[in-house]
Write a structure and sequence with these properties.
mainly beta, Immunoglobulin-like, six-stranded mixed beta sheet
Length: 152
């Protein structure tokens, strides 16, 4: 099983036809005037399974490495629901997942989320936490005292 893609977003949900609805996708910068601060984010990912791979017993986990270098598991293991590619049995099959996170951020700096598939690190997603004097009330995140953006 290999990771096809994973992005960080403010919110995500699945539609009835299997597509995603992603709000605030590709976020990587969080500004706050207070620490610690609760942060709610989503990881949207798709894993691919080769035609010869079994569909059962695949898992995904999330870990975070904080600015001080400490790494810890923050989600999972979650069992992926997979099914064979119904259009072409000789092509890879996909397993989609939305993982909603609620994290308490204690320090500014670079945080790294690790997407782990079947026990193997498959992707790192970095996000930056900046401590600022005050937030623009017109830009503040709807859930509290943070502003989420893309730094690029």
């Amino acid at each position: 099983m290999n990771l096809d893609y994973a992005i960080l977003a403010e919110r995500a949900d699945g539609l009835t036809d299997g597509r995603y609805c992603v709000f605030g996708g590709d976020a990587d910068c969080i500004e706050t005037s207070n620490l610690p601060v609760p942060l709610q984010l989503a990881i949207v990912a798709r894993f691919l399974l080769g035609p010869e791979e079994p569909l059962e017993n695949h898992t995904v986990e999330l870990a975070v490495t904080r600015p001080d270098g400490k790494r810890g598991l923050i989600g999972g293991p979650l069992t992926l629901e997979t099914k064979r590619n119904e259009f072409d049995r000789d092509s890879p099959s996909g397993a989609r997942v939305i993982i909603n996170l609620v994290m308490l951020i204690h320090e500014p700096g670079t945080h790294t989320l690790h997407v782990i598939g079947d026990g193997t690190d498959q992707k790192e997603i970095r996000f930056y936490v900046r401590l600022v004097e005050s937030l623009d009330p017109n830009k503040a995140h709807s859930d509290g005292p943070v502003e989420i953006a893309n730094s690029k």
